[in-house]
Amino acid sequence: MLSIRSLLPLPLLLLLLAACSEPPQEAIRLGTNVWPGYEPLYLAQHLDLINPDEVRLVEYPSASEVIRAFRNRSLEAAALTLDEALLLQQDGIPVSVILVMDISDGGDVIMARKDVANMVALKGKRVAVESGALGAYVIARALELHGLKLAEIEVRHLDVSAHEAAYRDGEVDAVVTFEPVRTQLLNQGAHEIFSSREMPGEIVDVLVVHNAMLEQPQRLQSLVKGWFSALDHLKNQPQSAAGIIAKRLGVTPQEALDSYQGLQLPSRQENQQLLSDSGSLHVTVERLGATMRENALLRGEASSKALLFDGMVK
Amino acid sequence: MHVRIPIKYLLPLILLIFSVASTALIYLYDRTRLTEKVTEQMTGVAADRLTGMQGTLELLLELDEHNGVSRQLAAFSGLPDNVTLLITDAQGRVIASNRQADRSRHITDRHPEISTSIMTEVITRRTIETRLDEQGRWLDAYASVCTRGSGSLRSDSCGLLYHRLDLSYHQRIALQPLKTQTGFIAIAMTAASLLLGYLIHLMLFRRTAILAETVNRYAQGERSARSGLIGGDEIAHLAGNVDAMMGRIEADEQALRAKEQRLKTLFNSVRDPIVVTTLEGKIISFNHAAEKLFGYSTGEVYGRNINILMPQRDQQTHDSHLLHYRAGVRNSTVIGKGRELIACNAGGEEFPVEVTITEMRDSDELQLIGVIRDISERVEAEQQMRLSQQVFEAAGEAIVITDADTRIIDVNPAYEEITGYSREEMIGEKPSKIKSNRYNHEFYEQMWESINRTGSWSGEIWDRRKGGETFPKWLNINSIRNAHGEVSHYVGIFSDITAQKAVEEQLEQLAYYDPLTKLPNRALYRDRLERELLQVQRRPHISALLFIDLDKFKQVNDTLGHDIGDELLIAVAERLTGCVRASDTVCRLGGDEFTVILSDVEKIEGITRVASGIIEQLQQPFILQGHEVEIGGSIGIALMPQDATDFVEINKKADIAMYHAKASGRGNYQFYTEGLNG
Predict the structure, then answer these.
(1) Do A140 and B29 make contact, defined as CB atoms within 8 angstroms?
(2) According to the model, what pLDDT value does residue A255 have?
(3) Which residues from chain A sit within 8 angstroms of residue B22, using beta carbons?
């Protein structure tokens, strides 16, 4: 007996087959500005330690543009400073810090002309600051540490990409900047009047992702793995690594290696300690948040628990 | 679900419906998916566009370059999907828009579709938000555009960047290939359905129609119908099996018909009449032998009551028998046993029959088979037998019946009476038990030779009674032959002819002997002489005829009277007989004429010695009633065959010789010689 009912499942089966052809996942877009602390990412890319189908590195001229792109969801992940991550959290964008990439120990600086001898001499001077990003925090902390007020200096809002030109053209007297601009400006005769050595552990560069990304941890895990492999390479074969890194930074290999003097690169174990629930980074975040609020850089409370996630470095 | 549409149309129809349904479903699914994809993609595009403009617009606004802002917007206004693209200041006033009328107007006046809550959110959170309207057609993207104040590090004032896209434009483009493809698939599916229908018709229905038509013809009786479909598919296999089945049925039917025909032929060729009836007695079968016996054709008796084959007086009885039988009274004398009845043929003639009735169950119906045997001949034969037996018993003649080995199997009372032997004594014996030993072996051989050759023998024969006395009988023997021509029995019939024999002897005496002297008379003399004449020629020896003439007999007769004369003649006859051998013959021809035939004498001396003896005896005196009488005699002798070979001649020559003897003096004998004839 031929039953039409028995034929019914067939179209459904076809639909199921059609539904099976899911589009492939797109690569994670990871945005960075130029900063030695982020360079191991490009080293990993150069050494094929990360899969380009899984992670695509996107270069931006400044941290401000990285933040914009991350906010606008043009990026799934971003290499940012911790204070920048707190800004995102403040604006209600669900983000997580999954990796501590470096801790600045002299890499972030205020460079000034020779005639500006020290921080106190900065009073009334024109200072280039990337105010949308770390620069605002650094200048605020530097002024605070040296007893100055923001109103006592003339702030020029300039992204890092414009710093060297502004200094060279004489548009500004000092620049709140970081490597490799620091080295470039040193070469032009500028001198360092403040560095992150004066506020150890406060400037932390981290890998930030939209929380939605945590639902697909595999690619992030392999990214993290690639990161640590690149660190190993940098540590074990510094000359070879420096050659690769120097080209991107626009400095000599030696200068590139020298720039790592102002940085700490935490290992996987150190990362686990930093990011764990009882890790020291929680304290750093709380303190950083408090400092930022005091300097009108942050409106709300910082929540280290919501921000830090150690699942990817385990 | 019962399908009333022919499969021929149903299968392609199902395929068509299935194809259309699946094509439609796939189309709907793909359309939904494509629409979603387009929406998703365009959401990203909208965000990207705003992201792309955001930084530049912020910079231009910071530099107060409103012309630049207008140009930047104008560059995107021309996008084909663009509906609205505008930028406001922090107060919501439109700085630039692709609709020129919007300029300097408050955004809420011009664009009620813009959500103020989203606007507030993107400005405070500095994110980009997108919203899709309920119909999925309009995609709205919101972004903040912030400018830095110079007062503090982060004292930004933010306006709104708003963009509305028409998704239908992209959906149309995206769906176009799908529509084309779906159209092609639909056409291909329809073509496939039609092709399938045609193929099914060609491979399945044309052939099943042939098969169905063949089966139909077969069902209507055309037994030679075959589909003849060949091939290796299921239909051909089925058709082959159906053909084989039909062939088998046809063969079976033929075999059945042949069997029926054989049975019918058998039924009709049986010599015994057979009549089959229902339990009610209705005739349903009537074979040829029955037709012949009763003089009815099958058509005449079919369906009629069996009692028409009986005399009217028996019909009612038979009807009541049947009634009892149907009522369950199974009379054991009826079924399976032969009964003798009187039947009646079409001409009303009655004749005896023997009927055997058996029951036969034919398709659950009980029938009766009557096997009839015309026993007229048997009855007649039985009567004949009884008659023969009576004749056998009552016959005055003795009858003896033997088997082929001549062993007696029966004798009748007359036999017992004549022979003195009882039936019991004779049965198993041979008839020769009573033979008289008068006959030699040759006699019986000749008798049997005759019986075997001609089938019968009759003649006079002497046998011996139980008491030892012999008796003559006239016996007639006949051989009885069976159907194969072989002798099965011999029948001997005889009568005691002792009395008849005595009469015959008396008559012979009268005819051939002289009553006075008891000597052969002239007739017997002639007979014996003629026989002697014939026999003497075949023998080496001679015979003689003697004529004797008595002297002085007339004187005796005249003087002493006839009585003495007769006594003299008797005495002469005795003396003559005493002079010859038993094989010789003395005759008295009449008066005093005596002759003697001497048969088979070796020498002539034998003859002369007899002649001398006779003359001597006749010269001796006779004493007759006290009278001494003296006579004498003369003898004439003729020799056979020297003197004559025929009766007349020998008599004449003996007479001539006697005459000469008498003439030459009494008491002489004279041989005939030629010289006597003078």
Answers:
(1) no
(2) 86
(3) 10-11, 14
Residues of chain A neighbouring B48 (CB-CB closer than 8 A): 72, 74
Check CB contact under 8 Å for A150 and B153. yes
Q: Residue B207, SS3?
A: helix
The predicted pLDDT at position B330 comes to: 64
Q: What is the ipTM of this complex?
A: 0.71
Cβ contacts from A onto B, under 8 A: 78
Distance CA B453, CA B475 (A): 17
The answer to whether the Cβ–Cβ distance between A18 and B26 falls below 8 Å is yes
Does A2 sit within 8 Å of B153, measured CB to CB? no
B499 touches chain A (CB under 8 A): no
Residue of A nearest to B148 (CA): A157
Q: Do B126 and A14 touch (CB under 8 A)?
A: no
3-state secondary structure of B227: coil
Chain A nearest C-alpha distance from B61 (Å): 14
- Are the beta carbons of B464 and B427 closer than 8 angstroms? no
The two three-digit tokens of residue B452, written as one number = 């075997």
CATH 1.10.10.10 fits A108-198, yes or no: no
Taking contacts as CB-CB distances below 8 angstroms, the residues of chain B near A65 are 55
Residue A102's φ and ψ, nearest 5 degrees, are -160, 160
Contact B51 A69 (CB under 8 A): yes
CB nearest to B154's CB, from A15, A74, A297: A297
Q: Find the mean pLDDT for residues B446-463.
A: 90
- pLDDT per residue as tens digits for the range B174-203: 888 888 888 888 888 888 888 888 887 877
Q: Closest chain B residue to A11 measured between Cα atoms?
A: B22
**CA B660 – CA B663 distance, rounded (Å):** 5
Determine the Cα–Cα distance for residues A80 and A66; give it in Å rounded to an integer.
8
**A91 in contact with chain B, both atoms CB, cutoff 8 A:** yes
Domain over A28-103+201-307 is classified CATH 3.40.190.10:
yes
Tokens of A218: 């595999």
For residues A289 and A86, is the Cβ–Cβ distance under 8 A?
yes
Domain with CATH 3.40.190.10 in chain A: 28-103+201-307, 108-198
* Cβ-nearest to B29 among A15, A68, A140: A15
Domains of chain B: 8-174 (3.30.450.20), 270-370 (3.30.450.20), 395-502 (3.30.450.20), 513-677 (3.30.70.270)
**Amino acid sitting at position A123:** K
Q: Is B40 on the interface with A (CB under 8 A)?
A: no
Q: Mind listing the pLDDT tens digit for each residue in B61-87?
A: 888 888 888 888 888 888 888 888 889
pLDDT at residue B313 is higher than 60: yes
- 3-class SS at B178? helix
| Closest by Cα among B155, B72, B150, B86 to B119 | B86
Read out DSSP for chain A? ---GGGGTHHHHHHHHHHHT-PPPPPPEEEEE-S-GGGHHHHHHHHTT-S-TTTEEEEE-SSHHHHHHHHHTTS-SEEEEEHHHHHHHHHTT--EEEEEEEEEESSSEEEEE-TT--SSGGGTT-EEEE-TTSHHHHHHHHHHHHTT--GGGSEEEE--GGGHHHHHHTTS-SEEEEETTHHHHHHHTT-EEEEEGGGSTTT-EEEEEEEGGGGGSHHHHHHHHHHHHHHHHHHHH-HHHHHHHHHHHHTS-HHHHHHHGGGEE---HHHHHHHHSTT-HHHHHHHHHHHHHHHTTS--S---HHHHB--TTT-
**B1 at the A interface (CB within 8 A)?**
yes
3-state secondary structure of B277: strand
Query: Would you call B47 and A4 a contact, using CB atoms and an 8 Å cutoff?
Result: no
Closest CA–CA distance from residue A3 to any residue of chain B (Å): 6
Band (pLDDT 50/70/90 cuts) for residue A9 is low
